[in-house]
């Protein structure tokens, strides 16, 4: 009889690494927007937050994120107001597409929070579409509780983590 | 002057009380318990019949050595495990290591207590020497485990052991010899410990098993996650992926050779299947543009049940690997965390269709589910016990998280833990122990792996090299 243990140990012992080239982005930075077709007006620095057609402006002035009450995916009046601004911006700056990232706070089980994040991202997508943004320009993804931006275990942090972030990507210049 | 009243020596086992573990009241005894060696026959090279002991092993005893695993506090059963005899010079260290690991397995259950060698009266210098029962009775060793280890120049190791019921003065079960390579010595020790545990408790063992989990590093707002696998006791950690993508919730196949998990490799969560042996991965293509997660094998090892989110709505689907998905739920609620019954006929899952997360059971082909959780709070991540009798779950109530178990009809709910954040139970192969994730609070919060008996006893941390989450227990290894 052979030694089954040997086989098992050798098989399990083979360690390999996956090769992934797709770094995750979590909508908390202002990097990696690529070369957008953003126009620059006179007297403002193209691409800076003072350039209304820049992603930096979208983040800072329009507001790239909205927050949700506990375990909710419905949009507050404040959230709708922010999303109205996002819809206007996207309607003007058609060179950009967007991925809407849904997030949850840590007070929930992992699977449920993934599903809850999907609900939140979808709520934003539907609202933006209702305001005239083409659905083909919008994607959604949920990170559940995997990517908090605030790390304390108190409501002040949880409130910031229950969010949907609209992350711009330079589109095909359409 | 009256003599000091010396109480009569109490019978060591009142009423010939057996020492076998009795299951908690809500857990029916397994009928037709099969000794584990029948299942691991490939590993067992020989029953021992040679030597100075009778060729016919003592098997039928009127009062076998048993532990009754009751709900109350139990006194751990004292056992003696003299260092196994090294029968070849090269085996000296191995013999010591194997002896200590067997003892660690047994003590780790909380059901056994090793009597230190310094207290021993007898010395065991030969595996076949007659047992001096009186010497072991004198130190109140209820069980005696003797053994011997030999190693040859080719790296082959042989371990023999015998288990004695000291107070009935006979062997419990037959002596066994196990063979393997020197590098597999931990498995040999775990197999011996499984035998001992099994014979004394009447339950299946769980020491010769592995755990796949997510190894975590980095700050809370930028965690790096890698799949890893290790022995049940934290030894032999091996990494299965790098940390370039978020990976979540790996689950073993019923044969332990494959793992389902969720990865963000493409940018959104999708289900992958990995061969543990060569870490080959394939996408299951369950998403078709939508995110899929929470996969689990059916008992056939070919069916996968999982969640898919479309338009923000999450439902449960099933597919044969490589086959066409079938939708099993269809409501606007979140339906996720599906888990098959061991016979494959039913699926337990969580849904918030009532307004909050609750547990439901439906036929494996879909259809009307019945709700089984009715207590206060929310219930999620149900997992069906491998014995079929219980469902483990995560419960959230009043700001705390609990791991609990209930019967499959929802009755006799029992919370086993309570903490800031406990979640994601997984069953030991024998259905008696649960491992789960416990995350500490605050900016420096870290997840770690813990285990607890279904009685609620023996809560303890499982050692891992760093932060760890999402454990899934393998079946007993072949």
From TrEMBL, chain A:
Principal location: membrane
Organism expressing this protein natively: Tropicimonas sediminicola
This protein's GO CC annotations: cell outer membrane
Subcellular location as annotated: Cell outer membrane
Function description: Part of the Tol-Pal system, which plays a role in outer membrane invagination during cell division and is important for maintaining outer membrane integrity.
Gene3D superfamilies linked: OmpA-like domain (3.30.1330.60)
Protein name in the entry: Peptidoglycan-associated protein
Family: Belongs to the Pal lipoprotein family.
Gene assigned in the entry: pal
Subunit-level organization: The Tol-Pal system is composed of five core proteins: the inner membrane proteins TolA, TolQ and TolR, the periplasmic protein TolB and the outer membrane protein Pal. They form a network linking the inner and outer membranes and the peptidoglycan layer.
UniProt keyword Disulfide bond, yes or no: no
Segments forming domain OmpA-like: 55-172
């Amino acid at each position: 009889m052979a030694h089954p243990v040997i086989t098992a140990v050798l098989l399990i012992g083979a360690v390999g690494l996956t090769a992934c080239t797709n770094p995750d982005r979590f909508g908390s930075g202002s990097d990696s927007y690529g070369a957008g077709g953003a126009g620059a007006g006179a007297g403002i620095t193209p691409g800076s937050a003072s350039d209304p057609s820049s992603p930096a402006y979208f983040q800072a002035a329009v507001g790239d994120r909205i927050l949700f009450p506990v375990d909710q995916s419905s949009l507050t009046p404040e959230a709708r107001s922010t999303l109205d601004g996002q819809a206007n911006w996207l309607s003007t700056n058609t060179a950009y597409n967007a991925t809407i990232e849904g997030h949850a706070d840590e007070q929930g089980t992992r699977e449920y929070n993934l599903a809850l994040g999907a609900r939140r991202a979808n709520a934003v997508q539907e609202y933006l579409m209702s305001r005239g943004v083409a659905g083909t320009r919008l994607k959604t993804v949920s990170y559940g509780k995997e990517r908090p931006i605030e790390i304390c275990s108190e409501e002040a942090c949880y409130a910031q983590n229950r969010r949907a972030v609209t992350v711009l990507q330079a589109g095909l210049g359409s | 002057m009256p003599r000091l009243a010396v109480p009569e020596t109490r019978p060591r086992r009142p009423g010939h009380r057996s020492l076998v573990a009795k299951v908690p009241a809500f857990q029916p005894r397994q009928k037709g318990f099969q000794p584990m060696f029948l299942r691991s026959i490939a590993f067992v090279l020989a029953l021992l019949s040679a030597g100075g002991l009778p060729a016919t092993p003592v098997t039928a005893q009127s009062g076998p050595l048993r532990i009754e695993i009751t709900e109350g506090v139990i006194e751990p059963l004292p056992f003696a495990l003299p260092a196994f005899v090294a029968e070849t010079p090269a085996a000296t260290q191995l013999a010591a290591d194997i002896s200590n690991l067997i003892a660690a397995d047994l003590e780790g259950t909380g059901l056994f207590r090793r009597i230190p060698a310094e207290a021993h009266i007898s010395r065991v210098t030969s595996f076949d020497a007659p047992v001096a029962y009186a010497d072991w009775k004198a130190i109140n060793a209820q069980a005696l485990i003797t053994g011997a280890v030999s190693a040859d120049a080719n790296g082959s190791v042989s371990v023999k052991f015998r288990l004695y019921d000291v107070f009935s003065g006979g062997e419990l079960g037959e002596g066994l010899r196990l063979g393997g390579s020197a590098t597999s010595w931990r498995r040999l020790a775990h197999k011996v410990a499984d035998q001992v545990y099994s014979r004394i408790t009447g339950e299946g063992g769980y020491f010769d098993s592995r755990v796949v989990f997510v190894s975590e590093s980095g700050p809370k707002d930028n965690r790096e996650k890698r799949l890893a696998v290790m022995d049940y006791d934290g030894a032999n950690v091996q990494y299965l992926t790098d940390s370039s993508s978020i990976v979540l919730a790996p689950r073993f196949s019923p044969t332990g050779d494959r793992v389902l998990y969720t990865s963000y490799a493409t940018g959104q969560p999708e289900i992958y299947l990995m061969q543990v042996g060569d870490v080959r991965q394939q996408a299951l293509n369950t998403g078709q543009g939508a995110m899929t997660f929470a996969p689990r094998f059916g008992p056939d090892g070919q069916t996968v049940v999982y969640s898919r989110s479309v338009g923000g709505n999450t439902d449960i689907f099933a597919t044969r690997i490589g086959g066409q998905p079938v939708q099993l739920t269809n409501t606007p609620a979140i339906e996720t965390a599906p888990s098959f019954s061991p016979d494959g006929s039913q699926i337990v899952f969580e849904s918030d269709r009532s307004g909050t997360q609750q547990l439901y059971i439906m036929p494996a082909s879909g259809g009307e589910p019945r709700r089984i959780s009715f207590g206060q709070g929310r219930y999620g991540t149900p997992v069906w016990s491998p014995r079929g009798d219980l469902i483990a779950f995560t419960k959230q109530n009043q700001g705390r998280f609990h791991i609990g178990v209930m019967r499959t009809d929802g009755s006799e709910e029992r919370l086993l833990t309570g903490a800031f954040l406990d979640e994601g139970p997984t069953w030991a192969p024998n259905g008696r122990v649960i491992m789960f994730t416990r995350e500490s609070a605050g900016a420096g919060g870290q997840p770690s792996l813990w285990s607890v008996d279904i009685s609620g006893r023996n809560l303890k941390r499982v050692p891992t090299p760093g932060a760890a989450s999402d454990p899934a227990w393998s079946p007993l290894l072949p």
